[in-house]
From TrEMBL:
Pfam families: Dynactin (PF12455)
Dynein associated protein domain ranges (all copies): 21-178
Descriptive protein name: Dynein associated protein domain-containing protein
Length: 290
């Protein structure tokens, strides 16, 4: 059985240190491992929905899904390819996960079109979704820490350092909310997953992945550039901000350098924090119904 991807690059006593980021590829490997864990958790969530739905949907819906078997078989081969790399310990930081992301998106789209929310085990789905959220937060935290070490020593009061602290604090709060939410899920009955609750869950996941991708890609650029100059101990605030700015523009459109952090702050504060708190507070109202 393949190793847990998060264990392929085990951590070190004392946690990630500056030299792991600026003088070696260890932190890059750990970040990629966290990225794999997030993608796998997303796959588990959507496949779990399919598995439980197949026993509850109508024969008509089942026949419609059966017509997609050739497409699904090709997706299965992609998954098998990644699992084989994992068995051979070759699923490393150089391996692109783009095709795995496409598999997850494919099954999510098929599910949304062909399977209604009352056809699958909603309790298991929400539990798996919380696991996905926590995996995404772990991925964000890993790269946020890398970002802090890409700053030259002595720049702890600059705007990038403040941004890193803000992201870190919000991620910690969201992690606690996700843990709290996962403990509220009953095992003895199904949840009533309303369209509003489902929309909020999908919105939260989209925001989380966007933030995670910005942090991951920024660190990837910084890693490449710092390897060009092995004597460097980091970047100044302006250079690192420019890297973040480039990735923010890819997902949010044109924005001035001075406003680089605004989209990230809005997403973290309003979506990941406020909406997550609202989700927890309204858990019973949304999911239990009466």
């Amino acid at each position: 059985f393949p190793k847990n991807p998060i264990l392929q690059f085990p951590g070190v006593p004392g946690g990630t240190r500056r030299e792991h980021v600026t003088k070696s590829h260890k932190a890059e490997q750990w970040a990629h491992s966290a990225r794999i864990a997030y993608t796998m958790s997303a796959l588990i969530a959507v496949c779990g929905q399919f598995e439980s739905a197949l026993g509850n949907i109508s024969l008509e819906d089942l026949a419609r899904l059966a017509q997609l078997q050739p497409e699904m078989t090709s997706q299965e081969r992609v998954i098998d390819g990644y699992l084989e790399l994992l068995r051979q310990a070759r699923l490393d930081a150089e391996t692109s996960l783009e095709n795995m992301d496409k598999v997850v998106t494919y099954f999510q789209n098929v599910l949304s079109v062909n399977v209604s929310a009352d056809s699958y085990d909603t309790s298991a789905f929400v539990q798996n979704t919380f696991q996905q959220i926590m995996a995404g937060i772990a991925w964000c935290k890993m790269n946020n820490q890398r970002l802090s070490y890409f700053l030259k020593p002595g720049l702890e009061e600059c705007d990038v350092a403040e941004f890193v602290r803000t992201i870190g604090n919000e991620l910690a709060q969201c992690e606690q909310l996700a843990i709290k939410g996962s403990k509220l899920i009953p095992t003895e009955k199904q949840l009533k997953l309303t369209p509003q609750a489902n929309d909020d869950i999908q919105s939260a996941l989209m925001v989380l992945q966007k933030i995670a991708s910005i942090l991951h890609e920024t660190c990837g650029i910084a890693s490449v550039q710092i390897n060009i100059n092995p004597e460097s101990d980091g970047f100044d605030s302006t250079r690192l901000k420019e890297m973040i700015h480039g990735e923010v523009e890819k997902t949010n459109g044109s924005i001035t350098l001075e406003k680089t952090f605004e989209p990230m702050r809005l997403q973290v504060f309003m979506d990941a924090s406020t909406k997550s708190k609202h989700f927890i507070q309204c858990f019973g109202e949304w999911l239990y119904g009466d």
